[in-house]
Amino acid sequence: MSRVFATMCLMIAVELTACTAPEKKTADSTAAIPATRADTPHEPPTPAVVAAPPAVHTSPPVTVHSAWAVTDSGAGVLRIGMTRDQLALDLHAAVPKHTRADSGCAYLAIAGIPAGFRTMWVAATLARIDIGDKKLATDRGAKIGDKQSKIESLYRGRLSAMPAKYDPRGKYLVVRPVPPADSSRRIVFETDINTKVTRYRVGREPEVEWVEGCS
């Protein structure tokens, strides 16, 4: 009886092994199948790194840090278009009155400003400043004695040249303001045969263009 029982148990064990083996094989086969593209989470492509072009460094215009640096609007407390009363308040000093400048044109001597400035007054307002001292520069660094090439470099894109009235070998270098500044303002540099600045002026049109000044 025990022999029969042992034989039966052996047969049952063999049958159970035959049933479970395919299932294990199926499970193992499923695990080995790689994930498809649909199963894989979508990741955006990594953008290519593009090297930035080398920076181009340009030298900024020379800036003169001076209270009397000349601009296309004037110099210091001298502002083109101001009245003599306004200048007297700014200088805290008396300014000549009752002169030809009241209704016409005159150069007035003003105490308290650099000696190299000559102020032209027309109809009681400041129309122009003539600069005759090489120590007095513009806010860009232009001054008497500079070459035309330097003026052109400092005021690139804003400058036009024309022959001088009394010296065809010289030139007038006319600088226009940058918008939105008053478009009637000008800086005029006069050069000689050696293309050097001999003097310059700043003012409004038409007075800044008067070659003989108030004459």
Task: Describe this entry's structure for a reader.
By secondary structure, the chain is an alpha+beta fold. The chain has a domain at 70-209. It has helices at 2-32, 84-91, 148-154, and strands at residues 70-71, 74-75, 78-79, 105-108, 117-122, 125-131, 159-163, 171-175, 185-191, 197-204. Strands 4-5-6-10-9-8-7 form a seven-stranded antiparallel beta sheet, with helices on one face. Strands 1-2-3 form a three-stranded antiparallel beta sheet, with no helix packed on it. A hairpin with a 2-residue loop joins strand 1 (70-71) and strand 2. The radius of gyration is 44 Å and the shape is globular. The termini are far apart. The model is unreliable at 16-41 and 49-59 (pLDDT under 50).
Quick description:
The protein is of the alpha+beta class. The protein is built from 3 helices and 10 strands, in the order αβββαβββαββββ.
Average residue pLDDT: 80
Low-confidence stretches: 16-41, 49-59
- Range of helix content: 10-25%
Strand order of the largest sheet: 4-5-6-10-9-8-7
Q: What string, H for helix and E for strand, traces the elements in order?
A: HEEEHEEEHEEEE
Number of separate helices: 3
Terminal CA distance reads 151 Å
Strand residue percentage: 15-25%
Task: Briefly note the structural class of the backbone.
Answer: alpha+beta
The major pleated sheet works out as: 7 strands, antiparallel
